[in-house]
Structures are given as structure tokens and as C-alpha cells.
């Protein structure tokens, strides 16, 4: 029976190692990160072919399918436009007045890398990478479906900052600084389209509103679209860590009120094309730590047949290999002499769960904790709780570990007490082995009688590791997916808990604590098992060399508490055994 217990413990350890290796294979790529364009250089490109296809549009067009027939758009030569610069407390972005697309976003609160002072570039359009957020009006009278290509909007000025913002009272009574950037396009027929970008200080969501003022003599018909267009370049959110390159899921995602979260890999954009109508929903492109998403607005409109307003969610690949996720509204009618508004929200920034949850159902699930997400979610909430008090993610991990150990204390104490009894009766078992020699059946019978007499369960030694395995793996995903821990320092040389220890000090400490913990456990009587157990701390130390420092910190604290717990239990069991022997004599 003791042999089975040993093999069970070994098996649990190797299963943990195997699962960690699988996580490596999934999360660590080998491609090099695409260099980012310097912040000072922003190039505008003609994107007439980047919009949704009308029914008569060419196959090379990237525009969504409109519900009405329009004339084929005529391509115009590429031109360089004066971009509109918008700078808030969170963003520095650029809007192309031709079409009103956002062609570059820099996130001012997030660095490009730990050692860089450059802001992280979320969206960009240059020779190295294409990743833009497009929107407009298509359909029968939509200016983006004109035979002249994308509309050229008029702007009051080409630079906006928070100094241009106005104080607006919110529903909760608080005052917010709101910056509006209006773009105006007028048709010869007397239709005026005002495309307004609205930014709120401290918030990442951007409201993109199209107001159609119909001063013509005819009914105006069109549809709003919003889409994300991205090439197949590498995830710039990846970071190099020694021989590994960190990166998680890169691809499309979408959700509806019925199906909150779905993934769609870029490679499957053609084979598993998204084409869903939903009352509410969202489309996104997901990368490590960051996400861009379009969320159609709730217009409280009904279509002509009385059906509720629904948006069409779509995915496609253009002829030049661009990946496109977007939405189109139903046909909107604006009678002569009236006006109407249609809007959507664009989120392009860090995957902050609290903000994403309020935007759309399921959007917060782009913070993908994998199949252990219930445990990971609880761990993250615990980390947040301690961080709100302490203000340091490293110490939060330490206090979270103490809390987890306190919750598991009753179960682990029973297990460690059984292991301590195994350690105490080890000399008796060795004597029995020598006495009965090759008579394995007699030895097994006597050993089982000894276990029963001493109330020992040899399999209980597996319990602590089995309990820690899912917690350890879930914490791995928390550290990998939670942008709050990106570049989060602890103390001294640990300046990024989501990256490996640059000096390998924590993994070595972890190896020492694992060795000490093994010495407190009953030692194997089989020479081969004894050798394997001596090698295990070395193997796990090597594994931990390239894992996030926060994860290694968790294991160190967990091992240290376990050592104290086992030491006290061992002393108590040895004392009880000694008292029992003295009483018997």
C-alpha cells in the first residue's frame, strides 16, 4: 500500500509538470515581435477598399454587405492626409478625415515594455502593421458607398486635447470632462452627416455617433457599420522571457445576449465565417492583455416591419488577407426634413474586467482564464481585495497565499498528520521488511495491520498536492491574463511579477523550500523512489526558472507555510507516540 501512495504522489507531481508544459506550449510562441513605429510618425493611407462590400462591390473590397444595391465604388489614388490628433489622459490617437477612421492609438497609461518609456501602440497603420478601427455609413445613400470613395470630412481643427473638453454632469451627480471631436460632411443634395467622437476623461470607451440631417427633398436610407481590420502580424503584447516568448490568444471574438463569449481564430475567418443578427452584442479582436471591440448602440428603434433593432455581426477576410470583424445596423430611414442619430462604442485598450463587464455581456470574458476560470476568478478577486488595501501586487500574492492555506488548513492538517505518523512508524516498517524478507504477502498483511492500528492512510499524502494543483494552474492564468499585473513590481530586483525572475533567486529559494519540505515527509524505503524524490526539487527548480515571478512567489510562501505546519504536526505526533510508548511500558 505504501508503494501505491508513493506512486500516486509521483504521478500527481508529474501531472502538474505536464500541465505546466502544456500551458507553455499554448502560451509561448516562437515568432519575433513586430517592431512598432515611432510615435512621431503617423502615415495616413487611402482606405477606400477597406469598408463593407455593397452588393455590386468588387471582391477586393473590405466593406460590409449592405442591404440595398448601390453603384460600385471607384478607387481613388492613395493620398497623405493631415490626421486629426486627439490626446486625453488615457489616449493619444489619430483620426483620418478621409472616412473618419481611427488609424493609430497609443495607450498613455501602459508602456511598450518594462524598460521603455514609450506608450504601448494599440492601433496603427503603416508599412509594418495594419490594425485600424473603421466606421461609417453605407447603403443606398450612405456616403461611404459613394462612387467617389470614402467621404472627406471637414474639421474645425486638427488637434484636440482635454483643454478643449467641457464639464458634463452625469446621472450620479458627478461631473466629468467630456471631449467631442466633430467631423462634418455635406452632400450636394443637402444631406449633412456629422460624425462625432466623444471621449470622457478616465474612461476608455469612445462613442462614435453619426447624425444624419436630411435637408434634401428625398428620403435618406443607409446603415452604420463599425469594424476592426487587422493583418496577420504578431501580437505586440508579447514579451521576451529568456528562451520563451510570452503570448496568449490572438484572434477574433464575439458575443450576444444568448452566447456571451465565442472565439474565432484568424485562420478560420473564411471556414467558420461569423454571420449573426443580435439585439445587442459585440465583436472584438483579442491579444495579450489588450482588446479592441465594437459595441453597437441601443437606438430603441424598430424596423419598418415592427421588429426590434438588431445588428448584424460579421467576420471575413479580404482578398489581400486582412482579417475583419464588424457589425452593420439595419437600414435606417431619414425622411426629408428630419434627422436621426445612430451610434456605437469603441473600446480599444487594456482588458480591465470591471470596465468590460459594464459595456456588454460577455466582453469581460476576453480575459480568458481557461477551463479553471471559476478558481482563477476567485483568486483574482482575492488579489484585488488585498491590493486595494496594500497597494502592491507582490504582497497581495503573499496574503492571498496565506488566505488560501488558512481555508485548506483543516484538510491539509489531516493529511500531514497521517504523513507524520507514516514518518514515525517508518522504522517499524523497515524492521518488518527485513523480518519477512521476500514474503511479500505476509509483509503486506502486517503493514495493513500496522496502518489500521496506527490509524494511518498512506494515500492522504497526495491530498495537499492535489488540492494545490488547480490553484497553482489557475494562478498561472491570472498572472498571464490580468493586465493589472503587467509590469507590476514587488520589491528589489522583482520589477515585473508577470515576468520571470531576472536573477533566478526566487526559483532557487523555491527549490530549497521544496527540499526542506521533502525532508519532513516520510522517506521512501525503495532506493529508486528515494532517488526520484531527491531529483524532484531540482526538476521543479528548473521548471520555475522561466515562470512568472509572481507564481514562484506563491509557491515559496505556500511551501514555507507548509514547512511550519508539518514541523508542528510532526513534533506533536512524535510527542504523542513517545507518551504512548511510555504509558505502555
From TrEMBL:
Residues 393-571 form the Membrane insertase YidC/Oxa/ALB C-terminal domain. It is a multi-pass membrane protein. The chain crosses the membrane at residues 7-24, 393-412, 456-479, 499-520, 532-557. Belongs to the OXA1/ALB3/YidC family. Type 1 subfamily. It comes from Acinetobacter venetianus (strain ATCC 31012 / DSM 23050 / BCRC 14357 / CCUG 45561 / CIP 110063 / KCTC 2702 / LMG 19082 / RAG-1). Residues 84-380 form the Membrane insertase YidC N-terminal domain. Interacts with the Sec translocase complex via SecD. Specifically interacts with transmembrane segments of nascent integral membrane proteins during membrane integration. Required for the insertion and/or proper folding and/or complex formation of integral membrane proteins into the membrane. Involved in integration of membrane proteins that insert both dependently and independently of the Sec translocase complex, as well as at least some lipoproteins. Aids folding of multispanning membrane proteins. The keyword Transferase does not apply. One of its GO terms (cellular component) is plasma membrane. The gene is yidC. InterPro entries: Membr_insert_YidC, Membr_insert_YidC_N, YidC/ALB3/OXA1/COX18, YidC/Oxa/ALB_C, YidC_ALB_C, YidC_periplasmic_sf. It is found in: Cell inner membrane; Cell membrane. The lineage of its organism: Bacteria, Pseudomonadati, Pseudomonadota, Gammaproteobacteria, Moraxellales. Pfam families: 60KD_IMP (PF02096), YidC_periplas (PF14849). This is Membrane protein insertase YidC. One of its GO terms (biological process) is protein transport. Keywords: Cell membrane, Chaperone, Membrane, Protein transport, Transmembrane, Transmembrane helix, Transport. Residues 54-77 are annotated as: Disordered.
Amino acid at each position: 500500500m505504501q508503494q501505491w501512495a508513493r506512486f500516486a504522489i509521483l504521478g500527481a507531481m508529474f501531472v502538474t509538470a505536464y500541465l505546466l508544459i502544456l500551458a507553455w506550449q499554448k502560451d509561448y510562441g516562437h515568432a519575433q515581435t513586430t517592431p512598432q513605429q515611432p510615435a512621431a510618425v503617423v502615415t495616413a493611407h487611402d482606405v477606400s477598399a477597406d469598408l463593407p462590400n455593397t452588393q455590386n462591390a468588387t471582391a477586393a473590397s473590405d466593406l460590409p454587405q449592405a442591404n440595398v444595391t448601390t453603384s460600385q465604388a471607384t478607387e481613388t489614388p492613395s493620398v497623405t492626409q493631415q490626421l486629426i490628433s486627439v490626446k486625453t489622459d488615457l489616449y493619444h490617437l489619430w483620426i483620418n478625415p478621409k472616412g473618419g477612421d481611427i488609424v493609430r492609438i497609443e495607450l498613455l497609461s501602459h508602456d511598450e515594455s518594462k524598460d521603455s518609456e514609450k506608450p504601448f501602440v494599440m492601433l496603427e497603420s503603416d508599412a509594418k502593421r495594419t490594425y485600424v478601427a473603421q466606421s461609417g455609413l453605407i447603403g443606398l445613400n450612405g456616403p461611404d458607398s459613394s462612387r467617389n470613395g470614402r467621404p472627406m470630412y471637414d474639421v474645425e481643427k486638427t488637434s484636440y486635447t482635454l483643454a478643449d473638453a467641457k464639464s458634463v454632469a452625469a446621472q450620479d451627480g458627478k461631473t466629468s470632462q467630456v471631449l467631442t471631436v466633430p467631423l462634418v460632411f455635406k452632400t450636394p443634395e443637402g444631406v449633412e452627416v456629422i460624425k462625432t467622437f466623444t471621449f470622457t476623461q478616465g474612461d476608455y470607451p469612445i462613442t462614435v455617433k453619426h447624425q444624419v440631417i436630411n435637408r434634401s427633398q428625398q428620403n435618406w436610407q443607409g446603415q452604420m457599420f463599425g469594424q476592426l481590420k487587422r493583418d496577420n502580424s504578431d501580437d505586440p503584447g508579447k514579451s521576451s522571457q529568456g528562451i520563451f516568448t510570452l503570448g496568449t490568444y490572438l484572434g477574433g471574438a464575439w458575443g450576444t445576449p444568448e452566447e456571451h463569449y465565442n472565439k474565432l481564430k484568424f485562420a478560420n475567418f473564411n471556414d467558420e465565417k461569423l454571420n449573426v443578427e443580435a439585439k445587442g452584442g459585440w465583436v472584438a479582436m483579442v491579444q495579450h492583455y489588450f482588446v479592441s471591440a465594437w459595441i453597437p448602440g441601443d437606438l430603441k428603434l424598430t424596423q419598418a416591419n415592427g421588429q426590434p433593432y438588431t445588428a448584424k455581426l460579421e467576420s471575413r477576410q479580404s482578398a489581400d488577407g486582412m482579417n475583419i470583424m464588424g457589425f452593420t445596423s439595419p437600414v435606417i430611414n431619414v425622411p426629408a426634413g428630419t434627422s436621426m442619430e445612430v451610434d456605437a462604442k469603441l473600446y480599444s485598450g487594456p482588458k480591465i474586467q470591471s470596465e468590460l463587464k459594464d459595456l456588454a455581456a460577455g466582453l469581460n470574458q476576453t480575459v480568458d482564464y481557461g477551463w479553471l476560470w471559476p478558481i482563477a476568478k476567485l483568486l483574482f478577486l482575492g488579489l484585488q481585495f488585498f491590493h486595494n488595501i496594500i497597494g502592491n501586487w507582490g504582497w497581495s500574492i503573499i496574503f492571498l497565499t496565506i488566505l488560501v492555506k488558512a481555508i485548506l488548513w483543516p484538510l491539509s492538517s489531516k493529511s500531514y498528520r497521517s504523513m507524520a505518523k507514516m514518518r514515525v512508524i517508518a522504522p517499524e516498517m523497515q524492521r518488518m521488511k527485513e523480518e519477512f524478507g521476500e514474503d511479500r504477502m505476509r509483509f503486506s498483511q502486517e503493514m495493513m495491520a500496522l496502518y489500521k492500528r496506527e490509524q494511518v492512510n498512506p494515500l492522504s499524502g497526495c491530498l495537499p498536492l492535489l488540492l494545490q494543483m488547480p490553484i497553482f494552474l489557475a494562478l498561472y492564468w491570472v498572472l498571464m491574463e490580468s493586465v493589472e499585473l503587467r509590469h507590476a513590481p514587488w520589491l528589489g530586483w522583482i520589477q515585473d511579477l508577470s515576468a520571470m525572475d531576472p536573477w533566478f533567486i526566487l526559483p532557487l529559494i523555491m527549490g530549497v523550500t521544496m527540499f526542506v519540505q521533502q525532508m519532513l515527509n516520510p522517506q521512501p524505503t525503495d532506493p529508486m523512489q528515494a532517488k526520484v524524490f531527491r531529483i524532484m526539487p531540482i526538476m521543479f527548480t528548473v521548471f520555475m526558472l522561466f515562470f512568472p515571478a509572481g507564481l514562484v512567489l506563491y509557491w515559496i510562501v505556500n511551501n514555507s507555510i507548509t514547512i511550519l505546519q508539518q514541523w508542528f504536526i510532526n513534533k506533536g505526533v512524535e510527542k504523542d507516540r513517545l507518551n504512548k510508548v511510555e504509558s505502555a511500558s
